[in-house]
Amino acid sequence: MESVVASLQHEVQRKLGRCMLRLQQYERLLKSMVASMSLTGPIDQLRAVQNEQVCGRRNRTLGTLVGIFTGCHLTKASRDVEVEQGDDIAFGNPAAAWASVRFNISMSPELHAQTKAGLAELVDLRNDLVHHLIENFDISDENGCRAASSHLDSCYEQIDGHYRVLKTWASSLSESQAQVSALLQSKAFEIAFVNGMKPNASVCWPTSPIVEYLREAETACQVGGWTSLDAAIKYVSKKSRDQVPTKYGCKTWRQVLKRSGQFDARSVAGSNDSTGQTWYRSSSDNVVPG
Question: What's this model's pTM, rounded to 2 decimal places?
Answer without folding.
Answer: 0.61
